[in-house]
């Protein structure tokens, strides 16, 4: 490959890294704006929807980062350290976010187990009616477990 071709490729790689840096900036802003009320897929339960939302952002940044590392693209870019630092910061924030929601989901399962240990069905002796008592959060967890 001649020098002009190398220069051309280097310019394209620099453009790709700049585009990735812009995408990282955009996704960081999106995460900060929507982390309290993310756009979940339709009918997605709270815990699963929030974890899936963060995982979707993670997937959007992992593939380009992996490609840049495999091809050594960061070695030719001046701002590579800043791009990598932004990537690592966003990845850590997403990981913490997913861990937070997973921990809350696990705690809600523990509460549901306590609720489930109470009698769910009772029978009135006089009219012989069967009554079912189920907490709303138990139904929510059943829906979460399906996902």
From TrEMBL:
Domain of life assignment: Eukaryota
Domain named Dynein heavy chain tail: residues: 9-147
InterPro entries with a match to the protein in the record: Dynein_heavy_tail (IPR013594)
Protein name per the record: Dynein heavy chain tail domain-containing protein
Organism: Leptocylindrus danicus
UniProt lineage: Eukaryota, Sar, Stramenopiles, Ochrophyta, Bacillariophyta
């Amino acid at each position: 490959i001649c020098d002009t071709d190398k220069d051309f490729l280097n310019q394209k790689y620099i453009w790709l890294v700049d585009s990735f840096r812009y995408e990282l900036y955009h996704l960081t802003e999106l995460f900060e704006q929507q982390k309290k009320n993310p756009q979940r897929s339709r009918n997605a339960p709270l815990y699963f929807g929030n974890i899936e939302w963060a995982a979707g952002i993670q997937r959007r940044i992992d593939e380009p980062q992996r490609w840049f590392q495999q091809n050594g693209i960061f070695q030719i870019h001046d701002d590579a350290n800043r791009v990598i630092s932004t990537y690592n910061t966003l990845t850590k924030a997403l990981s913490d976010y997913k861990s937070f929601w997973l921990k809350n989901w696990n705690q809600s399962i523990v509460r549901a187990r306590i609720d489930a240990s109470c009698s769910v069905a009772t029978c009135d002796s006089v009219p012989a009616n069967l009554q079912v008592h189920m907490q709303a959060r138990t139904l929510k967890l059943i829906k979460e477990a399906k996902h």
